[in-house]
Sequence to fold (546 residues):
Amino acid sequence: MEHNEIRHRLSEYIDGSATAEEKKEMEAHLRMCSACNDAFSELQKTIEHIKTVEEVETPAWMTQKIMAKVRSEETKKKSMFQKRFFPPLMKISIQTVAVLFVAVCAFYVYRNIEHSSRTGEMLANRFSTGQHDASPELSPSDRAQDGLHEKESSSLPSQQIPQIPAFKSLDMKPEYAAPSPPVHGNEETALASDKTKRAKQATPGGESILMEKIAPAPRAEVRQHSLALAEKTKASAKETTSSSSSAGSGETEAELIKKVGDYFSIHDLPRNGNGKAVKYDVSKFQAFPENASWLDAGMQKKMTSCKNTYLVDVLISQTQQKYVYCADNVSIELLFKVAQKNGRWIKAE
Amino acid sequence: MSGPDGDAALVSSVRQGDLNAFETLVNRHQKRMLNIAYRLTNDYEEACEAVQDAFLSAYKNLDSFRGESKFTTWLTAITVNLSKNRLKQMRSRHGLEAFSLDEPVLTDEGQMIFELPSKEQSAVNMLEQQEVQQKVQSCVKALADDFREILVLRDLQDFSYNEIGSMMKMPEGTVKSRLFRAREMVKDCLKRVMGEL
Fold:
């Protein structure tokens, strides 16, 4: 080893970290080289001097001060734990309840607003333009389209049913009537069977719909019933009855109700302990066939072939109107509409 | 792996919430940590603060101590870092330059050559009048931080090269090299202030 290397390794040699071989080699060199030996002695003395440096003592308060800080930290940790878990739990529950409450309120408010606006627009359009009666005849293509639409709606009822008449309420009372043969008649159509009785609960000044199930009837007869029904409805709006069986179809009330269950929900008729009304579910109602007319042979056929025909009384801004729907368990469609004119129920213009 | 001194058991107890165990650790190591901090900061009060901070930091971060090294090694590393931070703060607070010797230059012949800055000359003269102990302390104090740290840890606290390397996060070779240079610098400093060793 050269002088430089020896001197660099002196430090390690003194610390005893040199290998045995290095140690041997260095000791041999130090015996031969006085300069390196002097450097070794000086370094050894320097280290001895350094090691004599006295230690400072810790202040008496040191332990207490450290432990006070540690305990303070521990307390902080615990309080942070409590803040993190316990109070937030309470906060979360309160906040969750509040948020849910606001969300539910907002949902209902939004829904009401939406329905109101839609009702306003649609009814205004319908009744101001007389659109549904403006095309009394269904063209073959329209009928084909209508049929297609029915099929489509049968397969996808919920998706294809627009929310059309957003009436505030629509009550429907199922009734049971013996099936009648198909009817053909003139323009002023009957709307009800002999057995049909209605119940109506219109909100004063508001909009309400009462739907009654009517049996298919001969056209002339239907017309008479319709007119009579209209008068009767006007006179005895509160009267509600329902039959307990479906004589013609053999279906029970429950079954009939179940059939239209997708579109109507059952509820007790107001002030009527005897019957059941079916509430119209706007969201599931099928589009009105705007161009349908009971005058049309096709519509007549539709009506007479319809087992579950419903008469819907609508009170819009104090104006009574009626719609005839055919509904089964997969679809519901408007057959025609009548309105009160000069005290008589006639086809709406 | 905290050695036979029982630090590992105490650390384990502290982890389970035993503050008395931590107090035992404080009592066991505070003097050593204070001396390290004092030799690094050259200020007793600052050293006391650094040691308090070091123990508090150790307590807060005990989960990060995996027991791969001795507890003292881990604690010393914390103390050294906090002491260095305090030293920086002190210097920036007082706007003072470190009292350090110029970086020595190694000649081809292996001679360490360095010259004290002229402003330190008066300090050297002053050292001549003091006791050897004080002179040695002053020479150690005059070292650059990087060299002083290694010298303090090795010659004053008897940590091994490996432990110092672990604390300072440097290879063992660098530790040896720095220690050699630090000792040479102190030797030359002492020769100057004492005339002979």
Q: What stands out?
A: Chain A touches chain B through 36 residues (CB under 8 Å). Chain A has ten helices and eight strands. The beta strands of chain A are 170-173, 208-214, 264-268, 276-280, 309-316, 319-327, 332-341, 344-347.
